[in-house]
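To the wet lab folks,

You asked to see what we're planning to order before we commit. Fair enough. Below is the target structure as tokens, and below that is the sequence we designed to fit it. If anything looks off to you, flag it before the synthesis order goes out.
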């Protein structure tokens, strides 16, 4: 099977597995695991933040950020198809007791004027705006890179209004790879940032959240409250360090495979929902007899795994475990499906 469902399916490399085996460990509840401390220090340095904390997933990192930034009754501003709004099970309401205020973005990028217009004025009837959330790259916008100037303008208005900004940077290094802008520069327009190590970077488990020392102290407490107190976490922090420092350098290969798949989809006579920017390819089958689910099923019967991403949308995500032969084979399969329509 050629698994293009997501970059979450990447399996740890042999080097990662050996690093796990040899990792120095300690009890991280007592802040005594030397391996995760090295990872957190490296991540904080790369993101230009005072401190960082290893968390078990992107959702846990995002939710801890919401819990640490806001209080019950707040409202948070986020893009209407952001992961934090669309795919986290309304955790912001269930755990943090906050309500979402969604803003429609252009390929995932909310216009700063629309964000400013969504900020609540002081009024006894209204919630207080407690947080602004950005997502870069933007998953449902097809892995789109949010322009740096949009992030900068949003951060300026947020600071003027004394509202923190959190970046869901699950695929931030994909943005770095394609734009040439450093993770540190992107993160400089945020108060806190979450990066996934378990997606394109290939770690078996884990994300990092980074911010001020004070924020990370609060975040560690929230992680504990959520049952996320980690013991000998070095066994998963060691492969995560390889993901952060080594695998971030090869993401251009995934982007190249995604561009090749994009070209092949067009040659096969299918349409794209968006131009490819990073490692996500979204095909639109509206002008075919199939809907998204039927196309995913057809692809599955031919040995290609993809996911339905909307009534007529199919998402493919390239990653470390996908090579050029897999892409060529996928294109052949798409051409044969098209020939039967
Ligand atoms: C932008 C963004 N932020 C956060 C997360 C959550 O990360 P995890 O909790 O899965 O580690 C994801 C995962 N995205 C997954 C995927 O794309 O296959 C699914 C949809 O949850 C994400 O895309």
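Sequence we intend to order:
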């Amino acid at each position: 099977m050629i698994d293009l469902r997501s970059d979450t399916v990447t399996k740890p490399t042999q080097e990662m597995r050996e690093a796990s085996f040899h990792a120095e460990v300690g009890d991280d509840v007592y802040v005594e695991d030397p391996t995760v401390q090295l990872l957190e220090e490296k991540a904080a340095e790369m993101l230009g933040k005072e401190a960082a904390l290893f968390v078990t997933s992107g959702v846990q990192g995002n939710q801890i950020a919401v819990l640490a930034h806001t209080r019950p009754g707040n409202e948070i501003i986020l893009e209407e198809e952001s992961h934090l709004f669309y795919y986290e099970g309304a955790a912001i309401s269930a755990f943090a007791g906050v309500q979402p205020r969604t803003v429609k973005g252009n390929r995932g990028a909310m216009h700063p004027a629309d964000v400013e217009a969504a900020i609540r004025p002081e009024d006894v009837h209204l919630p207080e705006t407690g947080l602004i959330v950005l997502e870069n790259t933007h998953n449902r916008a097809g892995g789109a890179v949010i322009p740096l100037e949009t992030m900068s303008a949003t951060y300026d208005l947020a600071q003027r209004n004394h509202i923190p900004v959190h970046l869901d940077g699950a695929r931030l290094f994909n943005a770095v790879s394609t734009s040439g802008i450093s993770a540190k520069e992107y993160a400089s327009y945020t108060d806190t940032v979450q990066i996934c190590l378990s997606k394109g970077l290939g770690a078996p488990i884990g994300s990092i959240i980074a911010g001020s020392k004070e924020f990370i102290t609060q975040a560690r407490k929230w992680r504990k409250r959520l049952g996320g107190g980690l013991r000998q976490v070095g066994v998963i922090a060691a492969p995560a360090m390889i993901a952060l420092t080594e695998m971030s350098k090869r993401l251009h290969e995934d982007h190249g495979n995604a561009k090749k798949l994009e070209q092949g989809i067009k040659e096969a006579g299918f349409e794209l929902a968006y131009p490819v920017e990073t490692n996500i390819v979204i095909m639109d089958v509206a002008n075919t007899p199939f809907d998204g689910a039927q196309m995913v099923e057809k692809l599955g019967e031919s040995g290609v795994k993809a996911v339905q991403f909307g009534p007529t949308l199919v998402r493919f995500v390239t990653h470390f475990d996908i090579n050029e032969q897999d892409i060529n084979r996928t294109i052949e399969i798409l051409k044969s499906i098209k020939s039967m329509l």
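Structural context that might help your review: The first strand starts at residue 2 and ends at 3. The chain is about 40% helix and 15% strand.

Thanks,
Computational group
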